[in-house]
Design brief:
Layout lengths: L1 E5 L2 H4 L3 H12 L8 H14 L6 E7 L2 E11 L1 H5 L9 E9 L8 H12 L4 E5 L4 H8 L2 E8 L5 E7 L3
Parallel strand pairs: 4-5
Antiparallel strand pairs: 1-2, 2-3, 3-4, 5-7, 6-7
Helix pairs in contact: 2-3
């Protein structure tokens, strides 16, 4: 049985190798096509956010196996990409939602998402690949496309907003 756990920043540090393994599994397939080095950068980015405002993380465990992760933080990155005059100065960014392929299709991603948003302040933004399978799920979960944005490294991503219910 998979257990959802709210995790304090310090408790994530010993999970480094498990988090890298999760990132390798979750982001190896198209459209991400990421390898082990990319997974390490994904986890290193997590470390950069640990002391950020409103940092919140949840993991899904199946016994001693890490099945998924969701985390977010209030930041200015996505807010600065927000189009139009209604752009907030900062927003809660759902930075990562990852579920190991062996656990996908069981509602774990939705549970992680809902747990994170239950405590997240508004406004809420995220960036995702336009072809990511999760994009359809985000739309079902009340996220709306704000438009395509070009990141500094040249990658084009979709900026999405979730309004609190």
């Amino acid at each position: 049985m998979t257990e959802l756990i709210a995790v304090e920043p310090a408790a994530l540090i010993p999970l480094r190798e498990a988090l890298i393994t999760l990132a390798v599994q979750a982001f190896a397939a198209p459209p991400w096509n990421e390898g082990p080095e990319d997974a390490e950068r994904t986890v290193d980015r997590l470390w950069d956010y640990l002391d950020g405002p409103d940092f919140t993380a949840f993991i899904a465990r199946d016994g001693d196996q890490l099945a998924g992760l969701a985390y977010g933080v209030t930041d200015t990155l996505c807010a600065a990409l927000h189009p139009g005059p209604s752009a907030p100065a900062q927003a809660f960014e759902m930075v990562e939602l990852a579920v190991a392929p062996a656990y996908q299709g069981r509602g774990i991603g939705r549970a992680l998402h809902d747990a994170l948003l239950a405590v997240a302040p508004s406004p809420r933004l995220l960036l995702t690949h336009p072809d990511a399978p999760a994009r359809a799920a985000y739309r079902r979960w009340a996220w709306a496309d704000l438009g395509m944005v070009r990141m500094p490294a040249g990658r084009e991503l979709i900026l999405m907003r979730h309004d609190a219910a």
